[in-house]
Amino acid sequence: MKTSMKEVMKHHQDYLTWLESLKATDEKMFHTPISEGKWSPGAIISHIMFWDVHCMDEKFPMIGSGSTVNDFPPFETVNQTAWKYAKEKKSEELIEEAMSTRKKLIEKAAAFNDEDLDVRFKVGSNEMTLAELFLDFILHDKHHMDQVDQFLKAHIGG
């Protein structure tokens, strides 16, 4: 699937709009697991935010043709840290922080253009393009956004 920087930026703006819409979510519902053994909407937002930080701090600065970018850290370590972080935050505070983080990611992503999307680099031992990295993160966002939306719709008719 081919993507453009315009589409990447549109997704990020859509994500900000989605986060804004969650501000009306009841505090208890925000911290209720979406199903047995799953995270709450707050933990999911924290999880996305922690990966945003990783991407803009550890991936973007190192991307260049033929470069090797640091491998992803252990997923479970980052995810557990994000889950614990979310438990300590009020919903509006976490949403504002996630929005601020995504805006910083947008600023850093804006340095790339459509030609940069074809740049090949390695993440650990896996070769990929910037377009593939962006697409992976977009699909990841959408997966979690759908989970939260379905949960809220089922529980509050949202």
Large-scale geometry: globular
**Count of helices?**
6
Residue-averaged pLDDT, rounded? 91
Euclidean distance between termini CA atoms: 31 Å
The number of distinct β-strands equals 3
Largest sheet: 3 strands, mixed
Structural class: mainly alpha
* Percentage of residues in strands: 5-15%
Element string (H = helix, E = strand): HHHEHHEEH
Report Rg: 16 Å
Biggest sheet strand order reads: 1-2-3
Point out poorly predicted stretches.
none
Brief summary of the model shown:
By secondary structure, this protein is mainly alpha-helical. It has helices at residues 5-21, 27-30, 41-59, 75-87, 91-109, 130-156; strands at residues 68-69, 120-123, 126-129. The chain is globular.
